[in-house]
Amino acid sequence: MLRLTVLYDNEAYPGFTGSWGFSALLETGREILLFDTGWDGTLLLKHMEKIGISPACISKLVLSHQHWDHIGGLPEILQANPGLTVYVPSSFSEKLKREIKKRADLVEVKEALEISNGIWSTGELGDKIKEQSLVLGTENGSYVLTGCAHPGIDAIMDAALCYGDTKGIIGGLHDSDRFERLKDMELIAAGHCTTHKEKIKDAFPSKYMETRAGMRFELQ
Q1: Mean pLDDT over residues 9-37, rounded?
Q2: Is 54 within 8 Å of 48 (Cβ atoms)?
Q3: Strand order from edge to edge, sheet including 113-116
Q4: Is the distance from CB of 148 to CB of 193 less than 8 angstroms?
Q5: Strands 105-109 and 208-210
Q6: What angle do CA 216, 210, 128 make, to 5 degrees?
Q7: Using one digit for the tens of pLDDT, what is the confidence trace for 62-78?
Q8: How many Cβ atoms from other residues are within 10 Å of residue 148's Cβ?
Q9: Cα separation of 131 and 148, whole Å?
Q10: What is the pTM of this model?
């Protein structure tokens, strides 16, 4: 079983604070990974403390794309855990990559690769805005975790097909209106940076939910 906890999102459960951006924590049973950091590192660390996770326990950080609302908390995370391995799209600015290298082990991602056992990066997708998503494998299928989905649902879902049937998608869906790619999903959890939330909810009422900081998924 894979546990995913939304640490940072526009909306939040009671006891958490909503703020523009996204971050999610992945607990595999073998290691703990962080996906994106939101924009406020202090708030991110506060939310981690609330769920009982120390930044020092995180072994890998995956950054989806170089927008402030997804990487703003990076300095605080690297300060709290200088031994981290950080995976970034190779299109990140050379200046930012040099700064990360000063504080962490940097892995530049161009093509699809396995980040952890059963967790894969789609590789760097998109034209104007380069972005990577994660594919989370379980015994019964896989789930896609997105930052903002700037490359579009089609490109992301096509990349995920390499890892078997996709059961669900979690994260930002940006302004994509290619809803037919979602019809076979068992779970559509859309949050930060999703333009057409109401349309998706109306199209798939039994499958849709809106992500919030503090929300937890047990994926299996």
Answers
A1: 98
A2: yes
A3: 113-116, 119-121, 134-138, 141-146, 166-171, 187-190, 208-210
A4: yes
A5: unpaired
A6: 105
A7: 999 999 999 999 999 99
A8: 23
A9: 8
A10: 0.97
Report the chain's terminal Cα–Cα distance, integer Å. Answer: 5
The token duo for 112 is 């699809």
DSSP 12: B
* Residue-averaged pLDDT of the chain: 96
Q: Which residues are bridge partners to 194 per DSSP?
A: 174
pLDDT digits (tens, 9 = 90+) for 119-167: 999 999 999 999 999 999 999 999 999 999 999 999 999 999 999 999 9
Name the β-bridge partners of 174: 194
* Domains of the chain from N-terminus onward: 2-219 (3.60.15.10)
Question: 173 vs 60, 139, 177, CA distance in Å?
Answer: 24, 25, 9
Mean pLDDT of 40-53: 98
Distance CA 195, CA 179 (A): 12
Spatial distance between the Cα atoms of 117 and 203, rounded to a whole number of angstroms: 34
CA distance 116 to 59: 10
18, 11 contact by CB (below 8 A): yes
Q: Which residues, 6+ apart, have CB-to-CB distance to 89 below 8 Å?
A: 63, 64, 65, 66, 108, 109, 110, 124, 130, 131, 132
**Residues 28-45 pLDDT 10s:** 999 999 999 999 999 999
Quick check: helix, strand or coil at residue 6? strand
The tokens for 18 are 């909503």
pLDDT, residue 148, reads: 97
Q: Closest Cα to residue 60, out of 10, 125, 107?
A: 107
